[in-house]
Design brief:
By secondary structure, the protein is mainly α. It has one domain. It contains 20 helices and no strands. Helix 1 packs antiparallel against helix 2 and helix 10 runs parallel beside helix 16. 51% of the residues are buried. Keywords: Membrane, Transmembrane, Transmembrane helix.
Length: 434
């Protein structure tokens, strides 16, 4: 059964890549549904619920407006292809020696340097690896706990990894948060959004030094654990190449942002395969049978968001009668909605889909940047500040620190500060642009 699910996932990925051909969107959406149905027994509760709601959205569209189904299937296929491409890229890169050297070297230096290197290093690694960055860097922290025990250094390292990954939805051009936001807010440009969110992400990580546990001096690391500059340069060059490909395809060739990310990631995967063949190596194909949860959440949310957007758009005649002063207030509340939903265990993809699907249709086009900032920054704070986020659960498994402690209790003050700052920024941008 796993082989069949993996094969169907590869077909869904191929359909997303060949989206310019007639019928590929339907093929991709169908394959995604089959992968989810075949993996139903192994799925968690939230992905099942999301997929059931997507099924209800399909029934609603069939009854009310069947024309909503085709664009919804296209959205489902595109975003599912994105997740499959990023998963494939993550699996390929996690095998490399460069990444192993980088992850070990992040634990070197004095407490402040170590915190910053772990936080920004995890953020950098998360651009192509997504959750894989938490597993890679978090395993180093877990090994330190097993060998030397619990200490302020390991607790600060856990904070750094969680915060470093948490800001990736705010600044990473390849993250599902950025892609989903740009998909649901078509009037928003990626460069414009990143111009505000990248500095915010850096400031959020640096602010973490305020809520930082004092450490006792420790002996310096052995030189054998230090990575030289070459692995960092190679990895940074790869990330820059992928991001450059995304911007080239989306801005120059006018491809959709999700499609551009998928093609750019697959270019890196194929390049890695060709390089292995040149070295007379033949690494095995990545097993894609374990992606049912991700496909259910991302694909189901994409379908739900498209149906909601179409239904809301069909009910609106002219501009909505909303007072001008209310838009900044709504923008200020968006990050808090993401955080509150995260505390309730609701996946941010679901909240992002509902927020973008409903508000994106009625939001003033000239001020859509304020909504986009609120969405991606709220997504990021929820990623490191709530105990049910996937990265918190991964770190709990790797380190033994309870997610409610590591994510919620240790990061609560930073989360609240980040939410206040995000509300002020989203609201101010909305006021200026209205």
């Amino acid at each position: 059964m796993q082989l069949i699910r993996s094969f169907l996932a590869y077909i869904a990925l191929a359909a997303a890549i060949l989206a310019f051909l007639p019928g590929m969107a339907w093929l991709g959406a169908g394959m995604v549904c089959l992968v989810v149905i075949l993996g139903w027994r192994d799925m968690r509760r939230v992905p099942r619920a999301v997929f059931v709601v997507a099924g209800l959205a399909l029934l609603y569209a069939l009854a009310r407006d069947p024309d909503l189904i085709s664009p919804a299937a296209g959205n489902m296929s595109r975003l599912a292809g994105l997740i499959l491409a990023v998963t494939l890229l993550s699996s390929v890169l996690s095998r490399t020696r460069d990444l192993q050297q980088i992850s070990v070297s992040l634990f070197n230096g004095n407490p402040v340097t170590r915190y910053l290197s772990l936080a920004f290093g995890t953020a950098l690694v998360s651009v192509p690896l997504n959750f894989g960055s938490v597993a890679v860097v978090g395993s180093v922290v877990g090994e330190r706990i097993r060998s030397q025990g619990d200490s302020p250094a390991t607790r600060n390292a856990t904070r750094a990894v969680l915060r470093g990954f948490g800001v990736s939805p705010t600044f990473s051009p390849l993250s599902i948060s950025i892609v989903l936001t740009l998909t649901l807010l078509p009037g928003l440009g990626s460069l414009t959004l990143l111009l505000f969110t990248v500095p915010f992400a850096a400031a959020l990580v640096l602010s973490g030094l305020i809520w930082f546990e004092p450490e006792t001096p420790q002996r310096s690391e052995n030189s054998e654990n230090k990575a030289n500059l070459a692995p960092w340069l190679r990895f940074a060059a790869l990330i820059l190449a992928i991001c450059a490909g995304v911007f080239l395809l989306s801005h120059w060739y006018k491809l959709s942002y999700a499609y551009a990310v998928t093609l750019s990631c697959m270019g890196a995967v194929l390049g890695a395969r060709l390089l292995a063949w040149c070295r007379k190596l033949n690494p095995p194909m990545v097993n894609m049978s374990h992606v049912s949860n991700e496909l259910a959440i991302v694909g189901g949310s994409a379908f739900i968001g498209s149906v909601i957007s179409g239904a809301v758009l069909g009910q609106i005649s002219g501009d909505p009668n909303v007072p001008v002063w209310l838009w900044p207030v709504i923008a200020a509340g968006v990050p808090w909605v993401f955080f509150a939903a995260g505390l309730a265990g609701i996946n941010p993809i679901v909240i992002g889909t509902l927020t973008g699907g409903i508000l994106g249709v009625i939001w003033p086009v000239n001020a859509v940047l304020g909504l986009g900032i609120g969405m991606v920054v709220g997504w990021g704070v929820a990623a490191f500040g709530t105990p049910f986020a996937a990265n918190a659960l991964i770190m709990e498994r790797l380190t033994g620190y309870k997610a409610v402690d590591a994510s919620l209790r240790w990061n609560l003050r930073l989360s609240l500060a980040g939410l206040v700052a995000a509300s002020m920024l989203a609201s101010a941008v909305t006021v200026v642009l209205l």
